[in-house]
Each structure stands twice: as structure tokens, then as C-alpha cells.
Amino acid sequence: MMSGRRIMTADEIRRATIRLSHEIVEKQAGTDGLLLIGIQRRGVPLARRIAAAILENEGARVPVGALDITFYRDDLSLVAQQPVVKGTELPSGIDGRTVVLVDDVLYTGRTIRAAMDALVDFGRPQAIRLAVLVDRGHRELPIRADHVGKNVPTSREELVRVHLEETDGEDGVEIERIVDVPEPVGAGEPVG
Amino acid sequence: MSAVIDDAATTDVVVPSVDVAPESQPVGWRHRHLLDVDGLTAIDLDLVMRTADAMREVLARPIAKVPALRGRNVTILFYEASTRTRVSFEVAAKNLSADVVNIAAATSSVTKGESLIDTIRTVEALGAQMLVIRHSVSGAPYLAAEVFSGSVLNGGDGWHAHPTQALLDLYTMRSRLDGGSVAGRKIVILGDVLHSRVARSNIWSLTAAGADLWLCGPPTLLRGFEAWAGRGAAAGRRFHVTSSVEDALRDADVVMALRIQRERMASGLLPSLREYAARYGLTAARLALAKPAALVMHPGPMNEGVEIAAEVAAGPQSVITDQVTNGVAIRMALLYLLAGVASTGSGASPAANASPAA
Q1: Complex ipTM, two decimals?
Q2: Which residues is A131 bridged to in the sheet?
Q3: Which CATH architecture has domain A11-156?
Q4: B85 catalytically annotated
Q5: Which entry of B11, B83, B112, B344 is annotated as an active-site residue?
Q6: Confidence (pTM)
Q7: Across B37-47, average pLDDT
Q8: Could you give the CA distance from residue B344 to residue B339 in angstroms, rounded to a whole number?
Q9: Does A102 touch chain B (CB under 8 A)?
Q10: Which pairing describes strands A172-177 and A5-8: parallel, antiparallel, or unpaired?
Q11: Is residue A14 a contact partner of residue A171, using CB atoms and an 8 Å limit?
């Protein structure tokens, strides 16, 4: 199933998730007003795992939602085929809450930009924070994560794949080189 | 899934199980135009229905608007009177943040003798990227598709096809029937089948989806359909034609009444509206022959008291207002899917940026 170089094992993902849950509660000084919203697809099971860890450590149930950002993508006019929409389900009322967006990989930041645009259509959160399992760098927008599971230096010619039990049957993060990669528009980085 | 994660799922929102293995995900949309439903595969139909589900969720939001089609020009060119289809397309396009241009032929240069082809070239030069067209001549959208460089959506052509109506009907049935499928269900289309593009498109999509389809009406309004039914049966489609309302309605799961157009009386196909209502109108007594939870549908506009009794149209089994809401969701889904195909070639798409999750 996995073919690249493994950079996180199932145990490492589990520990990172638990640490993220502690960091989120610490930053909020509790769980009051906290909402976890996973970005489709792998952000959703990650958000659930973080909520489960918070329940175990704090005894508090934090609501979990799912956000599909497809309609807010800035590259809809560029992709050859419309992405399949996966569905949005938010806990009622995000007004005045602290929303923690959860995603598997932070890369260009465009997904998070889209997610924030989508969120403000649903209401006015008191704050929006970002928790990711892997930050691989190469931001194209001024966006930074509040909570990071693991920082992974990568090149643009590499692909970071997160596998989760719920979506892929097993836990693990791997990195592999993309063969035959087209030159990204505007990327001034030397190859390699 | 472990027990720990099940615990998390019991918070106040149930996250839908939308995740499927990549290999079981539907393949993408490949059609540039929507001219009829006959070119759609079962996989295409499923993709439209799933996308419409997402659009229903958008419609339920406090702000029912997403930026998916921002900057796209959707031009609506209607050569025939329409309220619900035209407004439904307009609302759908606006909910996707498209720029909408509305042209009613009655107030356009068409009245000065401009040809269909010239009109299409003109609206294209004015920036139209997606064209929704309704025309009284069967096949007009096909001609439009040959001339127009963007996507053409058929909003109804002559007696031929009304694909968005057929798709919203299928969507309404699937969302209302137990089990979410029309396969094996007895579905009755009652009324003026002969002049109905709604019936023709529905025949195609419903039999393709495995329904047991019954067409019912006066013999004069069913001419030619027996032969079609015979050919359909040979191709494995379940398809019956009858003038007996009792045979058609008995144990039906869905009854769809069609509008009786008053101008049909003049052509001698029907003796009178009163006689039609007495013999073929969908009354509460006739509906009682169908299954207790049978759905009542009507594509609109209705002549209450003619093809459908007012108390049936507004009764508990009626899903007629559902059809209208679902019409917006289905048209949003189709505009969204077609916009992807229409935009290919509009610019180099670096693979590194193609997936926002990367």
C-alpha cells in the first residue's frame, strides 16, 4: 500500500495527535467555546482523534465538524475536472467560538485560505486556529499553523502522503519523489 | 474503527461517513454539454445525484452562496415562456456566484428576425461561457452546441427533452423512496405523454435506473409509445403503456401527473377538460389505489382540478414543492460539473497545484 519513505509511524501519529490535543486545550486555557473542524477528507478523522484525546485527558466533549472546501478553491478554473464534493457538516453556531481547523498536511496554504473563506460564510468565530499533522513548508500565502504534529523539510518535487486507519486502512506518513513533475508556475526554486 | 473514535463521534454533530476508498470513487464528469439524459451513464447519474446532495447542504446554509463559479458568465436564452425553469437556473447560477444574463426572446432582437445561430454568436461575443437554452423546436439546443464554444444546457426543446427536469425528478424520488433507489419501483406518468418532453426524458432516465415505468393517458395522447415500449422491453427496460388508470395506479410507488395543455383541445385530441378530469384526473379516490405512501409529483405548472385535484396536489403525499427545491440543487450540480469541462485548456494546470490537499 505504502511505497515511499516512511517519515511517521502509527505510534508517532498517535503521540503527535495527543500532543496536539494538549496544545489546543492549553492555548484555549480549557475547552470552553472550542470547536474542532476537520477539512475533508483526512482532516476529519484527525479532528475526531483529537476530540477523543481531549475527552480522555480533560473529560470534556468538544464538538467536531467536517468542512469541504471544494467550492472555495482558487484553482477551479485550472483543474481539468471538477473535484468530487464530499460534504460539509458543521456544529450549529460557530459565532463567538474558537474554531480549530484540522488538516493532515500544510503545504501552499491555499486549502486553509479556502477553509477560512468557507467558515466566515457560516458565521463569525471568535478566533480561527490551525492544527496540522505535517507541515511540509513551501507556503504561497501568509498562513502559519498554531499547532504542528511534525515539521518536515521537503522539496516541491516530493509528495507527502498521510494514511489514516479510517480512510486508508492503516496509519503512517510517507514521502516520495514525484516522477515527471511539471514545473510549478512561478516557482523559482531550483530542481532538487 | 476503534471505540475511542466512536466516543468522539458522539459529540453534538454526527460527521457523515463520506470517505470512500479512492478506487471506489466515481470517475469524473466528461460531458461538455447537457442536451438530454440519454448520453448519461449510471455512473454519471450517480455523480450528479451526489453533487446535488452537496448543493442541498449549501442551500441549507445561512448564506446559500458559494464562490465556485465566480467570474463565469451563464447566459439564459429562453424562446418559450417559463417561470420555474428559468428562475431555477438563475437562482442556481447565482448561488454559485456566476454572472447571470437573462434573455427572453420576446423582448430581444429575435422579434426583428435574428436567427438562432446569429443570436448565439452574439451572446458568445458578449461573454457567454455557459448557455442555458429553451426552444419550441426540438433539437435547437443541438444546433446551439455546434455553434457555441462553451457549454450548452438544454432547458427544454419542443417535445424532445427536458434533461434537468428528469434529473430533478429522479433525485426527488431517490431522496424520498425507502432504500434511496427507483429500481423495481412502480412509477406512473399520467397524462399528456405525447406532447411532453418531461415524459420523454423521464422515460429514458427512469428505465435506465431500473424502474418499472407505466405511461397512462387517453389513447390519443399515447400514440407511438406502445412501439417504443416494445423496443424498450427488448432492451431489458421495464416499460408499460395503458389507458386504464386503475391498472396503472394499482400499487404504484410514484404517480407523476403531467399538465394538460389547453391548446390540445383545439386539435381534437381531447373532447373536453371536464371529461379528461373525470376519466384521468389524479383524484384522492384514484390515488388510494396506489401504495399508502406513494409519492405524488407534478413538473408544473399545474391545472388544479384538471390533471390533478387540488387536495392531492397539496396533500401529505405530494412532493411537488420538494421538486422545486431539488431543481435548484440539481441545476447547481450540473452547472458546477459542466463548468469543469468547459474550462479545460483555459490555462496550464501544474500538477503540483492541482490538489489543494498536497
Answers
A1: 0.80
A2: A102, A147
A3: 3-Layer(aba) Sandwich (3.40)
A4: yes
A5: B112
A6: 0.85
A7: 90
A8: 9
A9: no
A10: antiparallel
A11: yes
Q: How far apart are CA B304 and CA B313, in angstroms?
A: 8
Local confidence band at B266 (pLDDT 50, 70, 90 cut-offs):
confident
CB A129 within 8 A of CB A27: yes
Distance from CA of B94 to the nearest CA of A (A): 13
- Name which of B83, B88, B80, B29 is nearest B55 in CA terms: B88
Judged by a CB distance cut-off of 8 A, whether residue A63 touches chain B is yes
Radius of gyration from C-alpha coordinates of chain B: 22
CB-neighbour burial class of residue A121 (10 A; exposed 0-12, middle 13-18, buried 19+): middle
DSSP, residue by residue, A63-78:
PEEEE--GGG-TTTTT
Mean pLDDT computed over A147-162: 95
Options B56, B84, B121, B250, the catalytic residue: B84
Q: Which residue in B11, B58, B357 is closest to A64 by CB distance?
A: B11
Q: Do B71 and A77 touch (CB under 8 A)?
A: yes
Going from the N-terminus, what domains does chain B have, and what CATH number goes with each? 30-162+326-342 (3.40.50.1370), 163-319 (3.40.50.1370)
- B137 burial via Cβ count (<10 Å: 0-12, 13-18, 19+): middle
